[in-house]
Write a structure and sequence with these properties.
Pfam families: adh_short. With 251 residues, the chain is α/β, with parallel strands linked by helices. Helices cover 40% and strands 18% of the residues. The strands form two sheets. It has a seven-stranded parallel beta sheet with strand order 3-2-1-4-5-6-9, sandwiched between helices. The chain has a two-stranded antiparallel ribbon with strand order 7-8. Helix 4 links the parallel strand 4 and strand 5.
């Protein structure tokens, strides 16, 4: 691969939120970007007819869809240098005693199975690119470290992302594959609106408190920083939170 050749990224959950912001920033920085998400229209809106963008409607819980996504990426651009493993869902607001099996299964399907399927496809293709390999960025969330109240399903699945990231980083060593767990807290997304962070999010002591947030562009900038690291460097974990949010010492 020529040192000046455009690099290629696959971004899941690219139709909105952090995924959309990251896809737009990578496109602006000269990357080829393959945008994946369940619905075609939001992907097309994010891509904005950019010549280096490819939109592929994908259900990350479906192994066939995931394989087709990576096949399309390779057919169009030849190789895959980066996976932004971003697709996720918060699921129900419930403690473990209230969590219905169907709700649990739905959150696991996206946050764990979907992440594993995408990482597996990326890993196999990056491994075949030796010695250049590639990089995987897993969107963990600060709930991979410390839970919000009544977030049993989301928190448990995001803790699983920590294990996935460490396993990829270890198993990818011989193949030039690195992996980062990016834990983001209170980026201004629709999920934060649903949690009521602007008006009063549930706290561990039972009160509700408005919480600060930060612009999505800062999350995208963090992803761009990780993506642009040389192959000789790896950030195993990066935590990015809104200044002053109740995370350090949450409880």
């Amino acid at each position: 691969m020529s040192p000046t050749a455009p690099r290629t990224a696959v971004v899941t959950g690219a139709g909105s939120g952090i995924g959309a912001a990251a896809a737009r920033r990578l496109l602006a920085s000269g990357w080829n970007v393959v945008l994946a998400g369940r619905r075609a229209d939001p992907l097309e809106h994010t891509a904005a007819a950019h010549p280096a963008a490819l939109t592929v409607p994908t259900d990350v819980t479906n192994a066939g869809d995931v394989t087709a996504l990576f096949d399309a990426a390779q057919e169009r651009f030849g190789r895959i240098d980066l996976l932004v493993n971003n697709a996720g869902t918060f699921g129900p607001a419930a403690d473990v005693g209230e969590l219905a099996l169907a709700e649990w299964d739905a959150v696991v399907a996206v946050n764990v199975t979907g992440a594993v399927l995408c990482a597996g496809e990326a890993f196999r293709r990056m491994r075949a690119q030796r010695p250049t390999g590639g990089r995987i960025i897993n969107n963990g969330s600060i709930s991979a470290q410390t839970p919000r109240p009544r977030s049993a399903a989301y928190t448990t699945t995001k803790h699983a992302i920590a294990g996935l990231t460490k396993s990829i980083e270890l198993d990818g060593r011989p193949h030039g594959i690195t992996c980062t767990q990016l834990d983001i807290g209170n980026a201004a997304t629709a999920m934060m609106t649903d949690l009521g962070t602007a008006t009063g999010a549930l706290q561990a002591d039972g009160t509700r408190r408005a919480e600060p947030s930060f612009d999505l562009e800062e999350a995208a900038r963090a992803i761009e920083y990780l993506a642009d690291l040389p192959a000789s460097a790896s950030v195993n974990q990066l935590t990015l939170t809104a200044a002053g949010m109740p995370f350090i010492g949450r409880g």
